[in-house]
């Protein structure tokens, strides 16, 4: 439902922002107001409360403003559009109308629309090498009726074609793969710009955009590993799996830290000395771009991968990727640890619940944590220390033990689960408790990598790659559900997948129980079962959320 005062004067895009953006239950600019179905009862109540009779003309003369103020008091999530350089005003006199029309003529509506289609915060490569022309591609798509989801799907198909070219193992295939990967990234930027340009936001679109990015990158890693084997017989599956693990753990650090900054008295307030130093550096323009490049965001990362694929070998690509991402991870994590240690704030129950969901612990840890409840102090360093020990003890054992495929390893995995239970036995409200989820992820993923790498089973590493890819999808899906405000996946799904400690136990038992070939087959079967389980539930959830009219969102994404 939309109300527009006939005296409204302004740019078409200002009116479009107020009336057609689906992300907000109600939105307004001077002279125009819209209400989505969830806000219409509040609008009806507001209209019913307007008095009629003598002395009320000032309320009905500018009716849109009166109703906007009433909806604002209702606290229904009214969005007041900030037109910026666009014009949106009520012209109550001929002089005001002439003045407003001159202001409209002085600003190019389409230029503003194109400029605001680009994310305000992005990496150097994306900002200066992609967005200057991808915004025009977004406009071309909009004028031909393409949707952001269609462009997102085209980007996925292009990346899969790039992975296929890389898998050929020929120099021509590697060159084509690099070109197609860059083209895929152009389309990846275009879909978000198209959504902002045409205001086509949706729950489904945000999910597709986020999950397809991971699918594209990790499928490309697999293509490179296959190509290396076909080209020179070089086995780089361990490097490919290591790159996927490192990148996934980086994202888990990002997600967990961003959830942990929800504190009592302010959602993201941070007055620590480290944050103050960052703010001071922001005043020096060039340092912003340097710091954005240091973290190797998706634009810089994909550009590096594409160029190195075309010019060098898959092994070189993975080594450069591992070194670059490791340095970026050290830089970002160290900064966040310093911010957390110098921050004086209490974490909210929401933050603690989100971190517990991101930890992805299963029935065994549930049982242990209930027994250990009350033995630690909330806010201490107990949780991250126990999480570190849980992962470190197991990893040291499987790395240095002469034969890690043994029943002793199963026992060590059980001890690791006990330490994990101690880590989550109290609400995760401590300064560094956001480290618990990434420590669990590193422990689980690296254990599978080491067991597969140290086994003599042919094909164990590709099977482990598939298994970790399925589990990583489950963890990304958890993040996107929490970000969308719908909560974590249902508890039955977490229990069915075993939780991180359950999956570790299963893999260690399989390694101890089965001969070499049987281990590969078992890892493959486990990967298929987990993939079908988490994918079917994820697709069911997001499709039902989309069809059920869940609030439209647009995930701006994270630079990494």
Explain what the structure shows.
The chain starts with a strand and ends in a 13-residue tail after the last helix. The chain has 24 helices and 6 strands. The longest helix has 32 residues, at 516-547. The protein is mainly alpha-helical. The mean pLDDT is 90.
What's the pLDDT, averaged over the residues?
Answer: 90
Number of strands: 6
Q: What's the Cα radius of gyration?
A: 26 Å
Helix content: over 70%
Q: Quote the distance from N terminus to C terminus.
A: 39 Å
Number of helices: 24
Helix and strand sequence: EEHEEHHHEEHHHHHHHHHHHHHHHHHHHH
Tell me the strand percentage band: under 5%
- What best-fitting shape do the alpha-carbon axes yield? globular
Strand order of the largest sheet: 1-4-3-5
Structural category is mainly alpha
Q: Any low-confidence stretches, pLDDT <50, length ≥5?
A: none
Major sheet description: 4 strands, mixed
